[in-house]
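Colleagues,

Please find the record for the two-part complex below.
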Amino acid sequence: MSTEQLRSAATKPGTGEPIIVCEGVEKWFDSFQALSGVDLVVGRQEVVVVCGPSGSGKSTLIRCINRLEKHDRGRIVVDGIELSDDVRKIQEIRREVGMVFQQFNLFPHLTVLDNISLAPRQVRHWSKAKARQKATELLERVRIPEQAHKYPGQLSGGQQQRAAIARALAMEPKIMLFDEPTSALDPEMIKEVLEAMEELAESGMTMIVVTHEMGFARAVADRMVFMADGEIVEAGTPGHFFEDPQEERTKQFLSQIL
Amino acid sequence: MTTSPLQEPIPVPEEGPPITQLGPREWVRQNLFRTWFDTALTVLFSLILAWVLYRAGRFVFVTGRWEIIDRNLTNLLVFRFPRDELWRVWTALFILAGTFGVAAGSAARARDRAVAEGRVAPAQSGLALRRFGPFLLLVAVLLYFAGSLSAFLLTTAVAAVALAARFAGYRVPPNRAGWGLAVGVLGLVAAFAAILGFGGVGWDRWGGLLLTVFLAVGGIAISFPIGVLLALGRRSTFPAVRVVCVGYIELIRGVPLITVLFMGAFMLGFFLPPGTETPSLETRALVALVVFTSAYVAEIVRGGLQSVPRGQIEAAYAVGLSPVRTTALIVLPQALRAVIPAMVGQFITLFKDTSLVAIIGLTELLGVSSIVTSQPDFLGQGLIFETLVFAAFVYWVGSYSMSRESQRLERRLGVGQR
């Protein structure tokens, strides 16, 4: 599928302008090829949900976008900056790209408030008061303002993940990446995290979400991307993707998880 | 039909967890005399314990000839230190009492606030005695041997200053984290300056417990940062740095401390540029202790660094922190906290290993303990027993206090983590 086709699948108003461009991205772990020629263009304010069987390269793809993994071939351009070995450019991109992890990865030695205000103070050089103000606002937004002075270990999984979303948002990123954000959560906590993500999508954030939550995908995604064996097999609007999948592998996958 | 146990009515559960508290009689029966074998063991070990306590008590209070300690107390504490300069040591003690008091006060305030906010559990009661008990016992023993009113009054004054400073430290609101720690470090430096500076007494004339404390504190303060840097260097992405650090660590860890001490004492001169004055034996001993300990500290810190999950580093990178900031703010704090027990263990080892400098001719606490038995009044009377028990007691108080403080620190830093 050509990048032009993928790009045209972005349907939201005002999403024409591409903010992430991946072209022929390849990634190898020793002799295992995790990504084999991935092309993906994401428009501003677009919400892309990536799904696929485990080991299909979904996580690797989004980890390449903020350079937690180094891609071996192809190009990745984020907000007009091409990813290369240039450390300053990597830092610049990471400032604009927030990430939420499956295992939350909150800093256990800092309170929730400090977790959130650390990066704005250190990287954006905000004053302590401003960073704390912002952190408090974000905690209200994800509905856990009363947890501000606790340590991550004292929070439930759902609260930790919402704190992690707040931490990523504190840097005022243009793009948010979600790497299976609800996979490590107990069922009753998944909803609260998905709600926070839904609100974020409504606010116009550009998002790439790797998830198995198909209800969320149907409700929120502008575009579905199905990956298998390191390739994008099929992409399209949720309507097309769920009701009328074209590829055999997609049909098979959907029949297994729906 | 017989009723099986399963068909019996289930007793209504009582409210709250079952009570497991035993009365003293019950406790003794349950734990000491449960079976005939338990009873036999209890009796046997009671007898052994009673015999040991009797012998030890008899030695300390009846047969021990403590006159040698009584007469040599100042020697044991400072040895060759000029007697008319002793006011400097007292000044240093006053400075330490003041600054550590302020630091303790501000720490207590921060802790109380954390407890009030529900971030940490309140301290256990009765902890203060276990924490300060041995130290107070040491002070009492020293005052007993000193047996002078002036020493008693000065000690009381030091204690008063410490308490007043703690009170003041609690009142002053610290607006920056680590403020109390900075005051403590400043106090340490000022205390050394009070003895060394202003026409003071160079450490080549220090001895006894003063030298022991100097070597231990100096060794810890210098080897800790060097060890951390070595550990970070060992994980560096620059091969040259890595090779140097690995080489240093593995070389030093392969050599006994005594060898390092001898090399420091007799060979350091060869490594210095020609023409430079050879530093004092005390300095050379300190260098040797630092060289040795920093290699072990590095390995301990490396273990801590490895225990920090990869996800922590990724999360720090993802919010835009640079590798240096990630190490300083995310990785090191977690790594160091994880290795507090091993680290303090190493420092306790260093504290006790300072006694080895007696071999290269320094007269720290252990050195003095053996020298004083050769004084004309005490020669050939087997009094090494008394002096060694005294030295052992001092070492024990130091080691035990360090291990207690490390447990406190662990509990405090570990709160709220799973």
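The longest strand of chain A covers residues 18-29.

Comments are welcome before we finalize the supplementary table.
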